[in-house]
Amino acid sequence: MLYKEPENLRASAGLSSGTSLDARTAAELFLDANPDIEVLEAFVIDVNGVPRGKWIPRDRAADVLNNGLAMPRSVFALDVWGRDVNAAGLAEGTGDPDGLCLPVPGTLSRVTWLKRPTAQVLLNMFDGEGGHFHANPRAVLANVLSQYAKLGLTPVAATEMEFYLIDPVRSALDPVRPPNSRDGRWHTGQTQVLSISELQDYEEVFTDIAEACRAQDIPADTVVRENGPGQYELNLNHVPDAMRAADAAVLLKRIVKAVARKHDLDATFMAKPYGLQAGSGMHVHFSVLDKEGKNVFADGNDVSQTLMHAVGGLLTYMSDSMAVFAPHANSYRRLKPSEHAPTYASWGIDNRSAAVRVIKAGQKATRIEHRVAGADTNPHLVLAMILKAALAGISEKLHPGAAISGDEHSMVHEPLPTNWDVALQRFANSGFALSAFGAEYRKLYAACKQQELLEFSFRVTDVEYDAYIRTV
Predict the structure, then answer these.
(1) Where are the alpha helices (DSSP H) in 216-360?
(2) DSSP 3-state helix, strand, coil percentages of the chain (rounded to 5)?
């Protein structure tokens, strides 16, 4: 069986059999409107932002959409290779129990890139008391958003996602290279930033990405040719729901990878696939609305003191957050000076060299752009850290200090950890990380990342062989 008896699961999750999920009607309408659907992909998002789930045949899909699906709780504590992390406390010695996963409203939609008619739905796991299961990244963000809600505040958020299209054929000697364009040109010696012709080379790819975004209600906006060979950026529109913004970022990454594969390409959100080319970031734009819908970051045509305090919080707690903004070994290759990837906790007005870029754009659009996180991150955790730091700055009335001019970072700006081990140790002992993630999730996240770090310590690289095997 694909799942346990629904009523038993609902009871164990603290939900009564009569609980209205507002899902039954949506499920029935969707299946009636899509009679060709043969399979449902149902998945959660793990600690690394990776979708993990099951294929459900159509004749069982309505049951899952109405009553939920059992998934091992340990699915949230896997390393990047998909292996259990025993130190996280969800697998070994626990009996590896299931948790009840219910559909996230608004995420049931068609998958447009597969030959077999397929639907998808994002799931949310619940605990035994009817609340979010603590190891679910969506639960971490939900907790931060609840703190905003108690103050009558609503974050408005959007992400900008950079990625590379790459040749799907790889080898140990040639692990990554740009794809050939229609004219058979390689792009290794060019940047061609903002090139329209470079977009036209992959017109079919981006057309199919746009179609998938429309089918899945992903608020996609602009497509931009970026700095690296085969590098592009997709922007998402601002939405007054940070959870939806994070969900959309995860689903967009899934769309881009899948559509690229359909066109015999690969897409990578790796932070630094080329050592000498631009890295890929996930820039987060956000503002905050009060109960009346007014942007509290703006004071007429100027920035408000509330925005300045938010920037103060972002800078104060940025180093404690680096293990989330740069979660992998490769992430730290992106954090180099003069590459528009911040190495200092700094801020500036409309300055892309700063970690925090303040954008003055009138009462409605004045906002903060947080430029630290890589495209290889978990969007739910990144947004949780950013919004918690901003809220702490507002509550504590923190000041950001002087803005930078150009890329001149003075010694008053704190250098950010650019070493994975250092960043992890700081995160694991951080009181701010404890307040943002809670004790259980801070421990889980640190355990998953420590297991990955240990794996890298066992791997001898080709550079070491090249340098040492005969010479020393």
Answers:
(1) 242-262, 305-316, 322-325, 331-334
(2) 40, 20, 40
Domain contains 472:
no
User: What are 293-351's pLDDT values in tens digits?
Assistant: 999 999 988 999 999 999 999 999 999 999 999 999 999 999 987 657 889 999 999 99
Number of domains in the chain: 2
Closest to 279 in 3D by CA, of 174, 351, 160, 375: 375
Two structure tokens written together for 332: 């730290």
Would the pLDDT of 3 be above 50?
no
Residue 53 sits in a domain of what CATH number?
3.10.20.70
Domain that holds residue 109: 6-135
Q: Please state, as a whole number, how many other Cβ atoms lie within 10 Å of the Cβ of residue 220.
A: 21
The pLDDT of residue 200? 78
CA-to-CA distance for 223 and 210, rounded, in angstroms? 10
Q: Which residues contact 430 (CB under 8 A, 6 or more apart)?
A: 320, 442
Query: Residue 223 above 60 pLDDT?
Result: yes
Q: Is 297 a member of any domain?
A: yes
